[in-house]
Please model this.
Amino acid sequence: MLMPPKSLIAVGGENLIDSIQDQSGSAPDGYFHNLGGSPYNVAVALARQGITTHYITPISSDAFGDRLAAHLQDQGVVTSGPRLAAPTTQAIVTLEKGVPKYQFLRDGTAERMVTTEILQSAFPAAATHFHIGSLALADGSDAAVWEKAFIDAARLGICTSLDPNVRASLITDPVSYRKRISRLLTNSSIVKLSDEDLDWLYPGLDYLNAITKLREQTTAKLVVLTKGPEGAEAWTPQHYLSLANPQFSGLVDTIGAGDTFMGTLLAGLANNDQLTSNALDQITSDNLASLIKRAIYAACLNCTKEGCDPPFAERLEQALLEERL
Model:
């Protein structure tokens, strides 16, 4: 009899095409059309590190959707969401000194056609963890569907993780959005967000008061704040950690760095059999340092490639070994 995987992670949220401004002059229309979407990227990062991963969001049946679905399957991700005739979401990405700025074309697209029935059908019965975030939570009826699915999973005892990955240009009602994130925080086992997310979610508060308020609001046993070139901080009920980034040469852009960090963090926890609420309570100081360091290294490796290109487990292990030598 085949044994079920130790960790089976369901990932929900947008899939899209990043149409990235070509700075080399080689792209015929001035843009490279890369596969993307924050949760989509997290699913790829997880699969590349050997974690059984199901992607439950609908994917378009258009040409872009064919590329998106095929890539997930090539990486070993199970695409359990349906294929729909609506078009693929597109993000127009311009770069300012390597930092991406986004404009989204998202109305009426396939990844937004979620219903409770679709997600219930796509959600794997053996799932041990559920991750969502980013555009899926911005607004509209789809955001409410994702919120319900996440809260239902948490109430069933499934470990959950949230990465808001705030895209302010898509948020038409900031008050309602912040209330939605607050409700999700009270049903999260793990929360990862950037310093920019923190500033937007808690306007008018300085860093210390904002992070204190977030930690008071959330049920998460692990909270991680990424700070771009300044590394990351992490909190558990027992431990605090701040780690700087290593020195990496050849920075190309930061697209997908946070998604790579998130996927690597979840992969590390899964490989340590710590992706349960009880196990998260047992994270030691050394264990926390190892998890965050690994996620930082993966994010930095991603930044040496164009677009989101999370490292495979072997490349990440090599980079960590080279650092120790």
User: Anything to note?
Assistant: DSSP finds eleven helices and 15 strands in the chain.
